[in-house]
Amino acid sequence: MRNAAILLAAGNSKRMDGVVSDKILAPLGNRPLFAHSVAAFLASGVADFYVIVCRDQRQLTELSAYAPTPCVFVRGGKERQDSVANALEALPADIENVFIHDCARPFVRPEQLVGLLKIVRLEKAVVLAHRVTDTIKQHADTGHLKSLDRSRLWAMETPQVFSRDLITAAYAKVVEKKLPITDDASAVELLKKPVALVENPHPNPKLTTPADLPWFEYLLNQIVPPLPTAHPFRTE
After folding, report:
1. How confident is the model at residue 224 (pLDDT cuts 50, 70, 90)?
2. 2-223 falls under which CATH superfamily?
3. pTM above 0.70?
């Protein structure tokens, strides 16, 4: 049985305000954002097959230069859950576990991917996450505030990793109920199945706005250990 990675790259980059037309292809160091996630997966060796979710033919052409092998490309859907559902349908029959990763998070580390694979074989669902450190309050329509216990609050990251049977059943439920979800663990919640959390002590932010770009360059140059350079895609 093999493991697969779904690499999500079809976001519309609306919040980048035109500073970059496609944040997945935004330059970071000597390679585009997308290539950093690919490099981490290749260095880890956790995936035997890749599904790359792209937005259109133009993006597919650009991403092809950095794509891992073996892989297939699928077209993204209107919403995130549509994109993931399309990718799940493209998986070969012998896939046992599935990584789902948002390539707008370029700082995932190979050793983390290896650790997540070990856990998903036991737990069936595991998510990279970090503890919430801000004070979080819930605002009611009445204007009243309710403080939430931040010791029990976690911010979800990617990759999120699942047994293929579990995540396929979970997304079938999403489609059945026509529910919008913003991460894959939310789909598993619909089945009332447990999800393991792995606390990430390292920065793993998502590129969202133009203000993130200088921060990402700082992280790349000062904090994140360099990935191996010998990968089967161009670096210029």
Report:
1. low
2. Spore Coat Polysaccharide Biosynthesis Protein SpsA; Chain A (3.90.550.10)
3. yes
